[in-house]
Amino acid sequence: YLTPRDKLICLLEGCNALQESLGADASADEIVPVLIYTIIRGKIWQLHSNLQYISRFHDQSLTLASDRAYHLTTLLATASFI
């Protein structure tokens, strides 16, 4: 994935799959610890730089949907925690 849009969609699909596995009513208190564990165990290559790239250069209209904004914010918080 080269464009910020493609990278954002890939990350959001992963977050959606994680949330579905935890249940549709899963809160951030349940999602964030699992996401931290998943990122650490997955050894995601250059996560921080990819998130910076997405944050700086993505199309702002794509994140107006609440799901995308929520998952992007969760990912950024998780990356800064790690």
Q: What features would you highlight for this structure?
A:
single chain, 82 residues, mainly alpha, 4 helices
Provide structural commentary.
- This protein has 82 residues and is mostly helical.
- The protein has 4 helices and no strands.
- It has helices spanning 4-22, 28-42, 47-57, 66-81.
- The mean pLDDT is 79.
Instruction: State the helical fraction.
Output: over 70%
| Count of β-strands | 0
Q: Write down the Rg.
A: 12 Å
Tell the overall outline. Answer: globular
Mean pLDDT: 79
Number of helices: 4
Please describe the biggest sheet, giving its number of strands, its sense, and whether it closes into a barrel. none
What is the rounded distance between the termini?
A: 23 Å
Q: Structural class, judged by helices and strands?
A: mainly alpha
In short:
This protein is mainly alpha-helical and 82 residues long.
List the helices and strands and how they pair.
Elements: H1 4-22, H2 28-42, H3 47-57, H4 66-81
